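Appendix B. Extra example for self-study. Work through it before the problem class; the solution is given directly after the inputs so you can check yourself.
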Amino acid sequence: MSTTVTQDMSFLYLIASASVLVQLVMLVLVLISFFSWWFIFRKHFVIRNEIRKTDDFEDIFWRGVDLNALHQRITSARYDSGSLERIFAAGFGEFNKHATGSDLDAVMESTRRAMRATYQREMDYLESHLSFLATVGSVSPYIGLLGTVWGIMNSFRSLASVTQATIAHVAPGIAEALIATAMGLFAAIPAVVAYNRYASSTDQLATRFESFMEELSNVLQRRAAG
Amino acid sequence: MSVTALRNSSYSEPRILLAGVLAGLVHLVFIALLIFGLNWKDHPPEGMMVEIWTELPKPIQEPVKTQPPPKQQTKPAPEPLKPKPEPEPQKPESVKPEPAKPAPRQAAVTPPVKKPDIAMQQKPEPIKEIKPDLEQQKKKEQEKLKELEKQKELEKKKELEKQKELEKQKELEKQKELAAQRQREQAAKAQREAEAQRAAQQAAARNLVTNEISKYKALILAKIRSRIVMPPDLPGNPIAEFSVTLLPGGDILDVRLSKSSGHAVFDNAVERAIFLSKPLPLPPDPALFHEFRNLNITVHYRE
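Solution. Structure tokens for the complete assembly:
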């Protein structure tokens, strides 16, 4: 008691003097925060890359290049292909396999299926780890709160053995416990922001992919008919 | 084949490591902000309890620390004082004979030498110039001589007076110096005495505190002993040691058996007695409570 009054309140001391459960909570939150930031940066690079490649491919495609040459270039994989390029390659490859003489509706149907399958795989890839960010955003404040509640419980329990209760007896315990909440919020806020941002970006990409699929099937149908 | 190859190559994410490094950097910056950016300093303690704790230990510790330095200070102080008085009186003594004695001698020697000269010069002059009025001249000369002698005597008296005054002044100076020395010595003595008194008072206070503590410890033990229902016929003299945590006011927070006597009956009896003797007698001065917060109580089966 007499020692806690004149203790120094440095950040590291507070963490070191916390109870085991609070320290565990802090450790978990630090790990969660690290991974969430890691995924934030990873997704940032992936989505930025994807948007750039989609822009480039649409630009090339609507300029009216030879589709066979384009398909050749993509499948040779001499450069890193984007999602949209892979969707195009899947659809165009499927369309070419049927060649001539087969039923146009059946050909278009299988082409569409091939494109849809690739589209779903690509979207799955783009949206991977976004659910982790969402979970971090919603759960880590609760984890931090758990640590805080536990720390405050402890500091009040130690208050029970004192006849003259002062703020000085409870303050260090509460301060140390509140660090857990701070860490939870530190993990949660960027995760939520990043999740919303990346979800809207992937949504935009998804609509672009879908509209491209429709347009490509029209182009191919015209090509088969013509 | 080509499609699967494409897929595998495409799913290798760009810059995974860079992302990890950036995440680490973000956390380092955050931690640095927390540690260096914020001043997590505790405010000065508030409340009664706190003030008592901080006040008590100081007076006990400080005298122990401060006592040696004052002694060291006082010891050197008188030492320089003592040597000073010794040379000082010697100087005046040595000075007295040298200037005082030669001065009067010179003064005494010169006038007698001059007197005959004047007398000799004066005597031949009247003899040569005026012969008839010899008697008158002689009378005049005698008168002159008398006057001269009177003047000389006066001069001598004046010189003597001056010497006396000088001696008196010297004596006064000596006395003043002696008085100053005495004053200094007295001041040093007074300082020493005051310090001794202070030390004695502090020692007495400490003795009082220790007496008080030992008195109340004995009281606590006596109270506990009086409540023990002694189990009969235990062999030897078993000793049970308990560590008791007290609350201000004498309530018992916790009793732990730190060393068993080897007889559970005796241990239990003592533990029960400790709880029964609640509240334990504590000194009225709350500042002494920290001595009683964690008590080690040793109970012998036979006294």
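Self-check: The first helix of chain A runs from residue 2 to 5. If your reasoning did not lead you there, revisit section 3.
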